[in-house]
Amino acid sequence: MGDSRVFRVPLRARTPRGARKRRAVRIPGAARAVLACLPGIAAALGLVLCAAGVDRTTAREAHPVAARPSVAHPAAKPRIVPRSAWIADAGRSQPPPRYDDRVVAVFIHHTDSPNGYDCADAPRIIRYLYAGQTGSRDWDDIGYNFVVDRCGTVYEGRAGGVDRPVTGAHTQGFNHRTAGIAALGTFTAGVPVPQAMTDAIAALAAWKLGLSGTDPRAGVRLVSSNSLSRWASGTTVTLPALAGHDDGYMTSCPGAALAARLPAIRQTAARLQGRR
């Protein structure tokens, strides 16, 4: 499945309508949810979420399915901390996860939250992000598939299984056949991006894209599922296999500093796949 469309707009110019409601009535077709950079639990840590809405898609809505490539360049799976480590008693009843046929692209985000945290506090901060999205926004789950802290620890985000192509709620119009990787912090121009963080993002992307045989340096064809993205619904576009949130949606996420590191992250991810 594909998600793509974006019309560059100022960061927070639009307030997402949230992902799928926990008790939403099943609606045929693709429902739209707008999520750009949203306020998180301001009362707790003044966190701001940087995510884009999830598009509802029923199992019968077919997207073009290309022949599955052979995995000629697999990468080692990095250590991923399960969501049970951060969700604690904040978990709630939610609909079953949705899946695509494979993941051919990853979108990189930042959570637009404070940077000066102790890495031991990362689970608590992720729990606040989750609470902001499932509480005030009434989403069914955290939108990101993975969260990476400044020490390079990778956390499972959205439920459904890290090895499976779980449909996320991270990039409006492009949640299908993609995974959302969020860097825990704010990485606007001039802000240092920890090397441990970028190394972990590269390793995670190399492994996740390697499951479909995708070169992290390549361009991939995705279909926008929502006209709130940069492209009208149904438009097929070519985007980087390792893309920034702003490649698919009108936002300043993942921040200028992290966006500037993406070319190097792509090269590292390709090397980890054994590519030249």
Briefly, what is this?
This protein is α/β, with parallel strands linked by helices. The protein contains 5 helices and 10 strands. 20% of the residues lie in helices and 14% in strands.
Report on the structure:
- Strand 5 and strand 6 form a beta hairpin.
- This protein has helices at 84-87, 122-136, 195-210, 245-248, 256-272; strands spanning 37-39, 48-50, 80-81, 105-110, 146-148, 154-156, 178-183, 219-223, 236-240, 242-244.
- It is built from five helices and ten strands, in the order E-E-E-H-E-H-E-E-E-H-E-E-E-H-H.
- The relative contact order is 0.24.
- Helices cover 20% and strands 14% of the residues.
- The model is unreliable at 1-49 and 51-68 (pLDDT under 50).
- The strands form three sheets. It has a six-stranded mixed sheet. A two-stranded antiparallel ribbon has the order 1-2.
- With 276 residues, the protein is α/β, with parallel strands linked by helices.
End-to-end distance: 29 Å
SSE succession = EEEHEHEEEHEEEHH
Identify the CATH architecture: 3-Layer(aba) Sandwich
Mean pLDDT: 81
CATH class: Alpha Beta
Outline the low-pLDDT stretches. 1-49, 51-68
CATH topology: Lysozyme-like
Q: How many structural domains are formed by the residues?
A: 1
Overall 3D geometry? globular
Helix content: 10-25%
Tell me about the biggest sheet? 6 strands, mixed
The Cα radius of gyration reads 17 Å
- CATH-assigned homologous superfamily: Peptidoglycan recognition protein-like
Alpha-beta content class: alpha/beta
Number of continuous helical runs = 5
For the secondary structure, the number of strands is 10
Beta-strand portion reads 5-15%
The main sheet orders its strands as 3-6-5-7-4-10
